[in-house]
């Protein structure tokens, strides 16, 4: 089988970690071809546009993209390319697995939590943000819809079924945000009834933060609205040792974009020491999405084995003495073994 994906190398460390990731993907023999497209600072310099139409068209054509981090220039009124991509393709599900890996500075072992965050509505709609003319009153209107809540909750349950997970927790603040969070919670309760084989529980968001820190093992799949999901998924990344190992999948009906959660890391760009694992794990999720689950699992296992046994080759953020390319080399070697 041959499948072409759109590849956005990205800014800062993006091209370094993308080169490493594609080398590892090639070693996995997935039959993928790459259509390189421009976005971010590169695109701004080349085409005068952070997100050229040709890039959108080619992502639409291939339906799947692997994306490096993009720098959003501060000032000049630029909208984040990431936000624009999510909106353009209606990528309503932001799926963020937090899985423990060996040799990190995490306080816990064997964490395995997937956060499913609604990615298009809630408190993050730009239309809901207003400031009065005198600058005295700021409003941010959260807007959740039945349709938006249904599709994200359903996505979480379907994911749980597909991945053999046992439990879905709906996180909300319906006690205070009676309408917006209340609608989400009611929809979650309704849809949960359709999945009797999956345990369902509900938890208020502030308590969830405490519970995640005190006893993260009680969580399996978390489904929640946009703002809470943004915060909780970073909290979960912290439980497994930080953003260097956190992939983020943005899924819609017509397209899916897989990326690392971290940014373009300008402080280490060009030094060859960026950890490629978050993007590699995003690539593994992409393989799952393309029905190459065995390959995705093989990649995750190779990363795990490398982190356990080849400590010298891993990047400095994980305590190693290696580089982006020595890390990738070690993973490629494990795949070949
Ligand atoms: P950042 O995630 O780029 O960096 C935060 C810290 O983590 C830095 O010290 C960096 O060196 C380190 N770091 C990040 N990724 C790493 C890796 N793979 N290996 C080793 N260390 C790593 O966040 P920051 O500095 O807030 O943002 C920089 C730029 O990235 C901004 O322009 C921001 O808009 C953009 N950004 C883009 C994202 C995306 O495209 N999805 C997400 C987050 C930020
Ligand atoms: Mg965030």
UniProtKB/TrEMBL annotation:
What the entry lists under SUPFAM superfamilies is as follows: Isocitrate/Isopropylmalate dehydrogenase-like (SSF53659)
- Highest taxon above the source species: Bacteria
Q: Which Gene3D superfamilies match?
A: Isopropylmalate Dehydrogenase
EC assignment: 1.1.1.41
Query: From the UniProt record, which GO molecular function terms apply?
Result: isocitrate dehydrogenase (NAD+) activity; magnesium ion binding; NAD binding
Q: Does the keyword ATP-binding apply?
A: no
What's a single GO BP term from this record? isocitrate metabolic process
Q: Which family does it belong to?
A: Belongs to the isocitrate and isopropylmalate dehydrogenases family.
Q: Which PANTHER family match?
A: DECARBOXYLATING DEHYDROGENASES-ISOCITRATE, ISOPROPYLMALATE, TARTRATE, ISOCITRATE DEHYDROGENASE [NAD] SUBUNIT ALPHA, MITOCHONDRIAL
Protein name (database record): Isocitrate dehydrogenase
Source organism per UniProt: Rhodanobacter denitrificans
Question: Upper lineage ranks?
Answer: Bacteria, Pseudomonadati, Pseudomonadota, Gammaproteobacteria, Lysobacterales
